[in-house]
């Protein structure tokens, strides 16, 4: 079951108010503004300085501010120059620099072995980092988030650096540095979004002594201002589409959350140039939630079987067999899918409908399997539950649509590989979502239907374990799945960097969507929304 937003939350109300404005001013292209901004030249100059450390720090800063899309060529040159000198990194004694270099190169698909940290390991293969600065420890902690299976030194690096930073934070007199440490531990860059951390980054840059601080601040503030206008316009378009569709009026119990669905698209596609794609992607994401609600809240097994068979047939005549309350949803699914498919065909020349049909068919079949389990009272084995739950998460449907919307399906060979293979990159992202969902500490306020849990299935198989032990097991599974996702994303593969980033971003937003606090709210997701709209 997918999470919902509380419609009474203040952030939800504020965002909805923004989306209702009429007569908005013409949207300024961020790219056009940046081309004209004189501040750009200062930043480009700082990126291209001969001092390698300064260049890499600037790459890190513009990424954290979320304006790296405006400096793609310069960033690539900085990293390419550093990668040609990668052999020198093995002998480097500066932990801060080695960690920063390892992370930035890895995030941009340059392979760097964890052996670069051998200089900081003693003869017993233990890290010797107690005497390192706080900045170095934070840099090491950030680098450890990119680890893959088998990189034991980075497993230790994450645990040890976190422990040392937590210990030091208790005795720090420097308030700004304490905030930096707290933000780093809570939101490491590789698993987070610029919109959550950028306010602190802007503050640090502005208060710095370097001359480029003002230029960075002005560019970052302009990006925020124009982005918010752009997101406001896009949300208005999604909201109008959803209201015109009328499914919420037809099915009173389903979730009515265009803001939530649109927020997912802003996470998957962060580049401002993908405005139309974000609007289109919100449509299948909304249907994932609506169909999930139909299976959880409305249908009998016989009705749900009919619905699944109709999706498998993908035939408008199949709607005649459905109950009235299902017909509109099914017909909406067909219409929306064909509308999106036609737009993709016009733009890129490949018809994606067959691939969309396969993804929807698999999703509904997985939903039906869950319904059969829980209507019958049967509790599957944990592995069986998870394998099905990976599909019922809806991740594959969202990412297959993303794949075609950004033009990656330009050849049938690429598209076949995505839909017909295990597509482990997609499955790992889906596993992270499913496990986080089942680890969630609260259920949706308005959801009364049947729901499952990996934790419940696991405890049935291991009756000797406590809830705490089972939850810890799931946390370890999420950590291991992130390692696999890192390897899949950063090893050679046929996917574009935009699509890979979309997969990573979906995994990144999952904790924001499922990390409930004691008041049954989602504070991290609300913080992300504030960065987008307020």
From TrEMBL:
Q: What residue stretches are annotated with the Terpene synthase N-terminal domain?
A: 31-172
What name is this protein filed under?
Uncharacterized protein
Ranges for domain Terpene synthase metal-binding come to 243-483
A GO molecular function for this record?
magnesium ion binding
Q: Which cofactor does it need?
A: Mg(2+)
Superkingdom assignment: Eukaryota
Q: Which UniProt keywords apply?
A: Lyase, Magnesium, Metal-binding
Species in which this protein is naturally found: Daucus carota subsp. sativus
- Look up the record and give one Gene Ontology term from the biological process aspect: terpenoid biosynthetic process
Q: Which InterPro entries match?
A: Isoprenoid_synthase_dom_sf, Terpene_cyclase-like_1_C, Terpene_synth_N, Terpene_synth_N_sf, Terpene_synthase-like, Terpene_synthase_metal-bd, Terpenoid_cyclase/PrenylTrfase
